[in-house]
């Protein structure tokens, strides 16, 4: 008989150990509370997916500026 190795992960919100199995319905979170705290942080834009760093030059081109100045 093979025994499964039980894996644990840290809850992203409170760092509590969480069993990675079907028993842990909120995984990787330890609870609904921690899951909702994380969701709220995403909704408030406190978390972001990493991307290349954007400079001011990347945000505005000369064409964009001339369009803006010409219309106002």
What's a concise summary of this model?
With 72 residues, the protein is mainly α. It has helices at 32-43, 56-59, 62-71, and strands at 8-10, 17-19. Inhibits all the catalytic activities of DNA gyrase by preventing its interaction with DNA. Acts by binding directly to the C-terminal domain of GyrB, which probably disrupts DNA binding by the gyrase.
Q: How does CATH name the architecture of the domain at 1-46?
A: 2-Layer Sandwich
Q: How much of the residues is beta strand, in percent?
A: 5-15%
Distance between the termini: 76 Å
Low-pLDDT segments: none
Q: Classify the helix fraction into a percent range.
A: 25-40%
Radius of gyration, taken over Cα atoms and rounded to an integer in Å: 22 Å
Task: Walk me through what this model shows.
- This protein is mainly alpha-helical and 72 residues long.
- It has a domain at 1-46: 2-Layer Sandwich (Erythroid Transcription Factor GATA-1, Chain A).
- Strands 1-2 form a two-stranded antiparallel sheet.
- It is elongated.
- The protein has helices at residues 32-43, 56-59, 62-71; strands at 8-10, 17-19.
- It starts with 7 loop residues before the first strand and ends with a helix.
- Strand 1 and strand 2 form a beta hairpin.
- 4% of the residues are buried.
């Amino acid at each position: 008989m093979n025994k499964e190795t039980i894996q644990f992960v840290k809850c992203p919100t409170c760092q509590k150990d969480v069993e990675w199995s079907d028993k842990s319905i909120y995984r990787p979170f330890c609870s609904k509370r921690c899951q909702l705290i994380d969701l709220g942080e995403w909704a408030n834009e406190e978390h972001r997916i990493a991307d290349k760093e954007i400079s001011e030059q990347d945000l505005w081109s000369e064409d964009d500026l001339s369009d803006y100045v010409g219309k106002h």
